[in-house]
Every structure is written in structure tokens, then in C-alpha cells.
Automatic annotation (TrEMBL):
Domain (Macro): residue spans on this chain: 4-160
Alphabetical list of InterPro entries matching this protein: Macro_dom (IPR002589), Macro_dom-like (IPR043472), Mono-ARTD/PARP (IPR052056), Poly(ADP-ribose)pol_cat_dom (IPR012317)
Domain of life: Eukaryota
Alphabetical UniProt keywords: Glycosyltransferase, NAD, Nucleus, Transferase
Record-given protein name: Poly [ADP-ribose] polymerase
UniProt domain PARP catalytic: residue ranges: 321-503
Organism of origin: Rotaria magnacalcarata
Pfam families cross-referenced by the UniProt entry: Macro (PF01661), PARP (PF00644)
GO annotations of cellular component type: cytoplasm; nucleus
PANTHER family recorded: PARP/ZINC FINGER CCCH TYPE DOMAIN CONTAINING PROTEIN, POLY [ADP-RIBOSE] POLYMERASE
Subcellular location: Nucleus
Signal peptide interval: none
Length: 503
């Protein structure tokens, strides 16, 4: 169980659901949603967006005419960042109609959430010449949005044509009916949700009074640190000073619980950053480090403070993508290299040298352009360089079956792949400088083709591994066989750079 503690906040927030008169074309937002089955709306958007929008839509639709959603970058007079085209058809059966509206709204919202957008605008679909019940459409669209906003913060607007006052009034009435009482009129102290085999709770209260295995504090937060140490007592205060003095560069230090009702206190080194992506990754790293150390102690419950919530640090991230990457207007992340490219020849040559005759032909080499994964790896790499003062990156191979390769391309080398290549040198993700070794963990598909990644891997401080190691040993970043095998224990410690398909 993981519990997050926060003090109450009496400030109320405005509703994230907005109903207004206007035009989808001129609305400044991240996403506008267009019903591609509505001839009038579709043609209006394509005309306003010009050739770039029309051409991109036609190309994607010709490749996959049954696609549930087509995403096009905005252009021309369209003020949004992107356009979601979704098909939808009216139906006289109210049950079928309601379900189709729910699917339409849910699909658009889920895609916007996946792409980390913060604002989206919907038209009032079905309220024109379809003969549908405006009341049913308004209620269904708004209730679907409302259910999604319980778990994700986003501004959702419904744009109604200026001459459709009756439609505006219907949508506005349903939004007003859903408004919650302000925080000052209710007292919500705890919410909880199940995730897999665990539970995450968010609770208002005093972290020092919680009965859990681990209480987490931040070494950079003077107020929180003093509160925890004062409640824990002199034994814990002395232990903290000794640990901090002896290990000033440790990211995490453990001390006895003292007078607190937990088993251990973990203090982690963490600081805010005005780069949103770096800030997000630093919080992910913090939680990973704490959870991994808790697992090594066989602890099952942790209490985190809501760190970094005193001030907002959100500015647009600034970083440079690799010079070899190609631009794409779509969500494309796999790019097949030409055999004439120096990039291809270099990879193929190294692969040939280390495969030692275990293959007959390279079918293709794909460059993986996963921007999110690259940025997470870049942040991790900078942290390694700052901490170790030396570049420990290696380019290593990772063999797997085709299904796993597709998942890794999208989600990276996460800990779900730990143990796939055995546990002889630790329970992590295995890489090797020897392609012939990694070849032993590949599997042929129906075409007798195999696949292997060439990955960028941060080795950091490494030590001899063994089968008892569930996480990285304290003071080290990876384990090894002492020769060509390296084992990582952090999701962002390796980046899938190329996928080699061969026979």
C-alpha cells in the first residue's frame, strides 16, 4: 500500500467542464474533436485547415479506412494544436445511441490523456438534423466526461453554435447539475484506488502519526525533515546526522523509526525543477528508489508526503532530439533505415562481427524514435554524469521475441522484463556486448525472422551480480558477469535505439 499525505486546502476550483457559444475553428485549445461523419463540420474543418489537413487525413484514411480515430496536426486558420477525426452515426435506438456517444467521447479523451494534452473541445454531435434527443446527447456526453475527469485533470469544452440557444441551455443545465459542493462545505479526508496487487491512498493528515512500514521524507525540505525528526526523537536525529555526514552523496538514507509507528524512515534527496519533463521524471525516480528499497526489506506499506506542491514549476521543456531522427506528422516511432545509409552500415557491421556466423541475412534495421523514452533516458543520463563525473554509457544488445519487441518499442525496458533472460547475475533486465549471446534469447516468428535490439545502456557503478540480487546493491547502478553481460534495475536506464530483424 502506498499512501500520499497532504494538508487540507480550502481553495475551491472552477469546473473543468465548460459550455460556450463559438466556433471550433477559432477555439484556442490543445485538441478539437471533429465528427468525420458530419459532412458540414468535416468540410468546414478541412477548408479552414487547407491542403495540409485534407492531405494528411486522406493519406491516413486510405491506409486504414476503419481506424477509430485519425489524428492530424492543425494548420491554416485552425487555432488548436491538433485535430481528432472520429466517425459517429446516429441511431433511433436510445440504448445504442447512448453507447455510441459514450464511445465517441471516451476514445477522444483517452487519446488526449495518452498524449498528455490538457484541453479538448467537443462539438454537440447529433444535435443537428439527425432527429436525436438533445437531452439524451447532452446528458450522455457530459456524464462521460465527468466520469473521466475523476481520475485525470483536463479542461473540456462543448462548443455550441451561437444560434442554437436551446442546445446551449440543455448542455449548461446538465453541467450545472453535476457541480460538486466546494471543499469548504464537505470534508474529504481519504480516497483510495486499487492498482494490481496494491492500493494507493490519498489522505489529509499528519504523516508522522501513520502506522506503516516506511515513512518517507525529503532531505531538501527543511520543514518536513524537522517535523519528522522531531517526532521520531533523539535516536533518529543522531542516526540521520551520522548517515548524512558519512554518505553525503547518497540519494536515499535509512534511519531507525524511533518514536514513530513505522519500521523505518527513508530520507530521499530531491529538488524541484522548472522543466516539466525533468520534474516528472525526478518524481518517478524518487518513487522507484523508495519502492525498490522497501521491497528489499520486504516492507508492504509506504507513506509519502505530497512533495513539491508548494509552488508550480511548469514551463515548456527545452531539449534537442538526435540529429539522425526524421520528422513525422504522425505518431510514428519506427523508421526503416536505407541500406545505403552510413547509419545502417555501421550497425550492420558491428552486428556481423559479434554474431559469429549465427545468422544468414539482415531483413531490416529500424530506428526507434520514442521521444518520451528518449527524454526519460536523457534525464537519467545527465544525473549519472553529474553524480559519477564520467560517461558510463554502452551500446549493448538485447534479444527477445517479436511480441516483447513491440511492447519495448512503446514502453521501454521496464521491470516487467526482469528475469526474462535468467537471474544468474541479478533479477533485472539483461544486456550484452555480444550479439551471439543475445541471439540465444530470440525466437523465430512465422516467417522464420528474429529480432534484437541495439540499446543505449547506462552502466554507472557496476559490481559482480548473483542470483540473490532482487534490486541493485546499495552504492551500485548495475550488476555484471565481469565480462560482457550487464543487468539494469531502473526503467529509464536503457533506451531501445535500433531494432534489427534478421534470419
Amino acid at each position: 500500500m502506498i499512501t500520499l499525505y497532504s494538508t487540507p486546502n480550502s481553495k475551491s476550483q472552477s469546473s473543468p467542464i465548460i459550455v460556450c457559444h463559438g466556433d471550433l475553428i477559432t477555439r484556442e485549445t490543445d485538441v478539437i474533436v471533429v465528427c468525420s461523419s458530419s459532412e458540414y463540420l468535416f468540410e468546414s474543418i478541412c477548408q479552414a485547415g487547407g491542403d495540409p489537413v485534407s492531405t494528411s487525413y486522406k493519406q491516413q484514411n486510405s491506409r486504414n479506412p476503419n481506424a477509430p480515430i485519425i489524428i492530424v496536426e492543425s494548420a491554416g486558420k485552425i487555432a488548436s494544436k491538433t485535430i481528432y477525426f472520429l466517425p459517429w452515426k446516429a441511431n433511433p435506438d436510445e440504448s445504442i445511441l447512448r453507447k455510441s456517444i459514450e464511445n465517441f467521447v471516451s476514445l477522444a479523451l483517452e487519446k488526449a490523456i495518452e498524449q498528455k494534452y490538457r484541453s479538448i473541445v467537443f462539438p454537440a454531435i447529433g444535435c443537428g438534423g439527425f432527429g436525436c434527443s438533445i437531452q439524451l446527447i447532452a446528458r450522455t456526453m457530459i456524464e462521460t466526461v465527468y466520469s473521466k475527469l475523476k481520475t485525470y485533470q483536463m479542461s473540456v469544452s462543448f462548443i455550441i453554435q451561437p444560434n442554437k440557444k436551446h442546445i446551449y441551455d440543455e448542455f449548461k443545465e446538465h453541467v450545472d447539475a453535476l457541480k460538486l459542493p466546494s471543499p469548504s462545505s464537505i470534508e474529504l479526508r481519504k480516497i483510495a484506488a486499487d492498482f494490481g496487487k496494491g492500493v494507493i491512498e490519498v489522505e489529509m493528515g499528519d504523516i508522522t502519526t501513520q502506522t506503516v512500514d516506511v515513512i518517507v521524507g525529503s532531505t531538501s525540505s527543511g520543514i518536513l525533515r524537522e517535523i519528522i525528526l522531531k517526532a521520531a526523537g533523539k535516536e533518529s536525529q543522531l542516526a540521520y546526522e551520522i548517515e548524512r555526514r558519512n554518505h553525503p552523496n547518497y540519494i536515499l538514507i535509512e534511519i531507525p523509526a524511533g518514536s514513530l509507528q513505522c519500521k523505518k524512515i527513508f530520507f530521499v534527496k530531491w529538488g524541484p525543477n522548472d522543466n516539466e519533463e525533468i520534474l516528472q521524471q525526478s518524481l518517478i525516480d524518487l518513487i522507484n528508489i523508495v519502492v525498490q528499497n522497501a521491497i528489499s526489506h520486504k516492507f508492504t506499506s509506504i507513506a509519502f508526503p505530497a512533495i513539491g506542491c508548494g509552488k508550480s514549476f511548469y514551463q515548456r521543456p527545452c531539449y534537442q532530439l538526435p540529429a539522425t531522427w526524421e520528422k513525422s506528422a504522425e505518431d510514428k516511432i519506427r523508421f526503416t533505415l536505407s541500406t545505403k545509409m552510413h547509419e545502417y552500415k555501421s550497425i550492420a557491421s558491428n552486428f556481423d562481427q559479434t554474431m559469429k556466423g549465427k545468422y544468414t541475412d539482415i531483413i531490416k534495421i529500424e530506428r526507434i524514435q520514442n521521444e518520451r523514452g528518449y527524454l526519460q533516458y536523457l534525464v537519467h543520463s545527465k544525473d549519472f554524469l553529474k553524480r559519477l563525473k564520467v560517461d558510463t554509457e554502452k551500446r549493448l544488445y538485447h534479444g527477445c521475441h517479436e511480441q516483447a519487441a513491440n511492447a519495448i518499442i512503446g514502453e521501454g525496458f521496464n521491470r516487467s522484463y526482469a528475469g526474462e533472460h535468467g537471474t544468474l547475475y541479478g533479477f533485472g533486465v539483461y544486456f550484452s556486448s555480444d550479439a551471439a549471446y543475445s541471439h540465444g534469447y530470440t525466437k523465430s516468428n512465422a516467417n522464420d525472422e528474429r529480432c534484437m535490439f541495439l540499446a543505449r545502456v547506462l552502466i554507472g557503478e557496476t559490481t559482480q551480480g548473483n542470483h540473490t540480487m532482487k534490486t541493485r546493491p546499495p552504492g551500485f547502478d548495475s550488476t555484471t558477469d565481469g565480462n560482457h553481460i550487464f543487468v539494469t534495475y531502473h526503467d529509464a536506464q536503457a533506451l531501445a535505439e535500433y531494432l534489427i530483424t534478421y534470419k
